[in-house]
Amino acid sequence: MAVLTVLVIDDEPGIRSGVARILRDFHVTYPFMDEDYTFDILEAPTGEEGISVIERDKPDIVLLDNKLPGMQGVEVLEYIRERKYDIVVAMITSYASLDVAVRATRDGATDFIPKPFTPQELKSSIENITKQLYLKRITHKLKQDGKKIRYQFLSVLSHELKAPLNALEGYLRMMQDKQAGDRIDDYAEHIDRSLQRIQGMRNLIMDLLDFTKIRLERKDEKIQEVNLADVASGAMATVQPYAIQMEVSVNLEIRSEVKIMADPDDMEIVFNNLISNAVKYNKFGGKADITIDSSDTDAIIIVTDSGIGIEKRDSENLFTEFVRIKNEKTKNITGSGLGLSIVKKVIELYHGTIKVDSTPDVGTTFTIRLPKRTTVIN
Amino acid sequence: MKKSDVTILVADDDPDYLFQTVFSLKKAGYKTVAVESQAEAESVIDNFKPDLALYDLMMENDDSGFILCYKTKRKYPDVPVILATAVSHETGISFSLDSEMEKAWIRADVYLEKGIRPEQLDQEIMKLLKL
Q1: What are the CA-CA distances from residue A137 to residues A33, A124, A375, B38, B47 (Å)?
Q2: I want to staple B108 with a disulfide (CB 3.0 to 4.6 A). Which of A6, A116, A186, B83 is the partner?
Q3: pLDDT tens-place string over residues A229-272
Q4: Which residue ranges make up each domain of chain B?
Q5: Alpha-helical segments (H) within chain B
């Protein structure tokens, strides 16, 4: 037997005692649940008191009246949502305020119970909520278990490698079965898309090589004096053909000659990735500026673009392996999802930092600081 | 119901898989609505009742497909839902709709591994819609 705590926040004493009475002997059972659920009822006459009960007792379910004397129901809802509490909220509302209910549902209420309600209506709502709660918790658990696997590099990698193969296999089968017609021209789009996926896979493999290089091949004898301006120019030359296609002008400004002790391959990885991103995620006809500067202690590399930018919520995951920001603007840009995670790993190897500032539709700036005197730790 | 009266909502974040699936469904004679994310699929089902839905499991969230199954069934209990994924293939987590428990919380009518042949998919759909 499991007990769920239900908090009723309503200024009408009749509603509160009614709910308590109806749910006192009620239990929810399903064949697929491990155990039956019964309910403990807590009551609060105002939103303010409701919140102190929420903080103290962490209820599983909150039945929330919207029209309260002080703080309104939706504000309580917002409070719960902001703190990401694992609480299912059902709004108690009269039919007249259906729009409130709709808004509340959008704001995170899982259900709403029309007022006045019969005992049966309340019970079936609670039954529903219990089911949802169970489902939510089991999916959460599944997600956690799943995550462990998903973030194991190799399994994610296998997904990333198989996805383009699956796509190619699909297109080839369509051709084999002559699904779009008998002429080769009927398959122009299929062939185009296949070639794109092959290009994507090639990039992924190149990035993977970089990735293993920084992970495995750390040899002290490769460390030498590196002029960052030289590396930047080299990377600009590599990206040039792509920049021409995109009509993006790439400029280098050297405010200070900076030489650091590093593996030149590592620095090349950093510049190649940042500059190619600055072109790739740019607008047609935009620009990318690379600045090399130094302070007393650090070499500073700044790469700024006039591109599509990154939403704040997306920037948290920007450096995570295989994470690609998916939206309308990035839809047609291919990438392995490895570039920035590689850059970050390299920077960390040199005890440096990388930070990103971005405004959607205006552009993004990456700022890297590398200590001038440093020992690389294997 | 004729196949040409059937509209299938297809959600998959891999544009090529989406393209191929939609292509084979159209060829089989169905109408389709194609979306590339859980969010888009949700806004479609808010405003429109498809005759059948075909969801990929992992889209912007790891459990997008589950959530879509759940929301679709809540709004339209009579709409058959197919959950398609390559996940067990790749991660070793396996799902099936064999036990009562799995049926109860995976709200899909059929669970399919990705990469099935178009004829197979067509058959599953005909079975679900009793065509």
Answers
A1: 12, 20, 47, 20, 28
A2: B83
A3: 999 999 998 888 888 888 999 999 999 989 988 888 889 889 99
A4: 3-129
A5: 15-28, 38-47, 64-75, 87-91, 100-105, 118-129
- Among chain A residues, the shortest Cα distance to B66 is held by A139
Q: Which of B35, B53, B52, B32 is nearest to B43 (CA)?
A: B35
Contact flag B91-A139 (C-beta cutoff 8 Å): no
pLDDT the model gives residue A151: 47
Q: Which residues pair with B34 in a beta bridge?
A: B10
- The whole-angstrom separation of Cα B124 and Cα A136 is 29
Cα–Cα separations (whole angstroms), residue A241 to A276, A328, B83: 11, 25, 43
d(CA A296, CA A308): 34
CB B69 within 8 A of CB B55: yes
Secondary structure of A244-265 as H, E, C letters: HHHCCEEEEEECCCCEEEECHH
Q: Note the CATH architecture for domain B3-129.
A: 3-Layer(aba) Sandwich (3.40)
Read off the amino acid at residue A200: G
Token pair 């939103």 in the structure block, residue: A47
Query: Could you tell me which chain B residue has the CA closest to the CA of A194?
Result: B16
Cβ within 8 Å, pair B93-A146: yes
The per-residue DSSP string of A292-336 comes to: EEE-SSEEEEEEEE-S----HHHHTTTTSTT----STTTTT----
The predicted model gives A287-312 an average pLDDT of 92
Distance, C-alpha A115 to centroid of its chain: 38
pLDDT in tens, chain B (131 residues): 889 999 999 999 888 889 999 999 999 999 999 999 999 999 999 999 999 999 988 787 767 888 888 889 889 999 999 988 765 444 444 444 555 545 555 567 887 877 778 888 999 999 999 98
ipTM of this complex:
0.71
Q: Whole-angstrom Cα distance, residue B32 to residue A374?
A: 59
Q: How far apart, in whole angstroms, are the C-alpha atoms of residue A61 and residue B8?
A: 36
Residues of B in contact with A326 (CB under 8 A): 13, 37, 60
Lookup result for tokens 């398609």: B84
**Measured at the alpha carbon of residue A94, what is the angle toward residues A91 and A96, in degrees to the nearest 5?**
125
Query: Apex CA A52: angle with CA A51 and CA A57, to 5°?
Result: 100
Distances (CA, A) of A373 to A217, A222, A313, A363: 21, 16, 34, 32
Q: Which residue has the tokens 């593996």?
A: A263
Partners of residue A92 on adjacent β-strands:
A65, A113
